[in-house]
Amino acid sequence: MDKGLRLQGKTVLITGASGGLGEQIAYAAAKRGAVVVVTGRRDHKLQEVQRRCQELSRGPSYAYTLDVADSEQIKEVLGRIRAELGPPHVLVNNAGFGLFVEAVDTDQQVTEEMFRVNVLGLIQVTQEVARDMQRAGRGHIINIASQAGKIATPKSAVYAATKFAVRGYSNALRLELKKHGVSVTTVNPGPIRTDFFTKADGGGTYLSKLGHWVLDPVQVAEKVADSMLTKRREINLPWAMEVAGRFYAFFPRVGDYLTSTLFNRK
User: Fold this and answer.
1) Is 44 exposed, middle or buried (0-12, 13-18, 19+ CB in 10 A)?
2) What is the rounded CA–CA span in Å between residue 258 and residue 266?
3) DSSP secondary-structure letter at 86?
4) What is the pLDDT of residues 99-126, one digit of tens each?
5) Mean pLDDT of 234-262
6) CA dihedral 173, 175, 177, 182 (to 10 degrees)
7) 11: exposed, middle or buried (C-beta count within 10 Å: 0-12, 13-18, 19+)?
8) Which run of H or E residues covers position 81?
9) How far, in Å, CA of 189 to CA of 195, rounded?
10) What is the CB neighbour count within 10 angstroms for residue 185?
C-alpha cells in the first residue's frame, strides 16, 4: 500500500506526546491521515497538540492526560481509550527521560523513577494494548529506545540500562507477537534537539558540543511515521552512530576507549 495512504483513518496512540519527539510523531502521523491519540502529563500542551493534529489530518484527534509512571492511571486511561475509541492500530511508546550523572552519584529515587517511566511504564502500556492487538489479529508497536541502548557512555549508566532493557524487551516481544499479526519496531536515535536535554544535561552544553551529530526531531518523526504498519524491525539514526555500534560489538575494548575519551562530550 502507498505509504501516504497506509495510515488513513487508522488510530495511532502515542505516549509522551506533549512535546519533543512524541509531539512531532503526532504531527507526522496526522499529516498521513491518522486518527491521532496523544497522551502525556502536560494537559494544556496536549490540547494544543491535539488541535494541531486535527488541522493536519482534517479529521478527529484525541488527548488524554497520562503519567506512565502511575500504574493505576495507565489502567484507567487505557481502559477509557479502549471503551471510547477501540484498540489502536499503532502504539508508539515514546515517554521517557534521562539524567547525565555518574553511576555512583545517581540517587536511588531517580534510578527507580527512570525505570518506572522508561521500562516498567512502557511494558505495562504495551501489555494493555498488545492484548487487544492480538485479539484483532493486527497492529504495530513502536518502542522509542536509543543508541544509548547499544553503546553506553559515561554519565548515562542508568539511562543506558533502561534503553538496553527496552531493546531486549522489544526483541522478544517481536517474536511472540509475530504469529498474531502484530509487528514490533525499535527506534534507536542518537541525540535529538528536544527539551529532553533540558532535564538530562544540567550544564546545558551537551548538544552544542555534538554539532552535526544532533538529529532534527521532525526528520526523525517522519521516518517513524513512514514505518507505521510495516514490518520494519529497527530504525537506527544517525547512520554513523549505527556503524559505530556495529564496530563496538566486534571490537569492544577499542569501543570502550573511544566512548570514554574521543566520544565523551558530557
Assistant:
1) exposed
2) 14
3) -
4) 989 999 999 999 999 999 999 999 999 9
5) 66
6) 100
7) buried
8) helix 71-85
9) 15
10) 22
All structural domains of the chain, each given as residue ranges with its CATH number in brackets, are: 11-238 (3.40.50.720)
Rounded to 10 deg, the angle between the 157-177 and 108-115 helix axes is: 20
Residue closest to 164 by CA, chosen among 187, 146, 184: 146
Give the pLDDT score at 265. 56
| 3 state DSSP class of 240 | helix
Angle (deg, nearest 10), helices 122-136 and 71-85: 30
Kindly list the catalytic residues.
159
Asked if 183 and 230 touch (Cβ cutoff 8 Å), the reply is: yes
Cell, residue 57: 489530518
Per-residue model confidence as pLDDT tens digits over 8-22: 999 999 999 999 999
Q: CA-to-CA distance for 210 and 33, rounded, in angstroms?
A: 35
DSSP-assigned letters across all residues of 87-130? --SEEEE---------GGG--HHHHHHHHIIIIIIHHHHHHHHH
Instruction: At 40, list the grid cell.
Output: 502525556
Of 266, 187, 184, the closest CA to residue 221 belongs to 187
Res. 81: pLDDT tops 70: yes
Torsion of the alpha carbons at 50, 55, 61 and 64, rounded to the nearest 10: 10
User: The C-alpha cell of 145 is what?
Assistant: 529506545
